């Protein structure tokens, strides 16, 4: 599969939102109930994605000039982590029609490479239950579980930490 990973631009926001919602709806069913998925995949404002933020690295993956995945990283982790980490992987989502073809890994690898170039030595994240195996394959270990609320429904998310950035 020919794939390009590039920095997102403001014009990508609607496509990013579409991949985000479709990914949740298409891939989370093995870990969450239909009610939880509906709450999590509620309509999102495309302008809320931090594509132009100086505090994030926001990437998209394209196949045949269509956005099929995205991810973003914060070089400075927020304070909601229990683990001692420098940066955070905030999200990686892939369209379900092309899932399990290495797209998430390509996005992750590029985010990690940028973290290394920025001097980040440890990364953390909060993973959905269905994404835990993906992050374990990237070298992450479980730290603890968190309960997060989306529109009145609670979901368990797993805090994870990378042993060390490659």
TrEMBL record:
GO molecular function, one term: acyltransferase activity, transferring groups other than amino-acyl groups
Domain (N-acetyltransferase): residue spans on this chain: 3-164
The keyword Transferase is assigned to this record: yes
Keyword terms of this UniProt record: Acyltransferase, Transferase
Pfam families: Acetyltransf_10
Gene3D superfamilies given in the database record: 3.40.630.30
InterPro entries, per the entry: Acyl_CoA_acyltransferase, Bact_Acetyltransf, GNAT_dom
Keyword Acyltransferase attributed: yes
PROSITE patterns: GNAT
Source superkingdom: Archaea
Protein known as: N-acetyltransferase
Species this chain originates from: Natronobacterium lacisalsi AJ5
């Amino acid at each position: 599969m020919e794939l390009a990973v590039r920095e997102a631009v403001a014009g990508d926001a609607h496509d990013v939102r579409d991949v985000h919602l479709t990914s949740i709806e298409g891939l989370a069913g093995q870990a969450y109930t239909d009610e939880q998925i509906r709450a999590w995949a509620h309509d999102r404002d495309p302008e809320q994605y931090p594509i132009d933020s100086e505090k994030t690295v926001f990437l998209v993956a394209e196949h045949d000039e269509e956005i099929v995945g995205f991810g973003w990283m914060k070089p400075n982790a927020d304070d909601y982590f229990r683990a001692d980490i420098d940066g955070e992987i905030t999200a990686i989502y892939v369209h379900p029609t092309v899932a399990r073809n290495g797209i998430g890994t390509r996005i992750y690898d590029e985010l990690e490479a940028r973290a290394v170039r920025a001097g980040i030595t440890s990364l953390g994240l909060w993973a959905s239950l269905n994404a835990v195996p993906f992050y374990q394959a990237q070298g992450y270990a479980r730290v603890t579980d968190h309960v997060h609320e989306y529109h009145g429904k609670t979901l368990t998310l797993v805090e994870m930490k990378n042993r060390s950035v490659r």
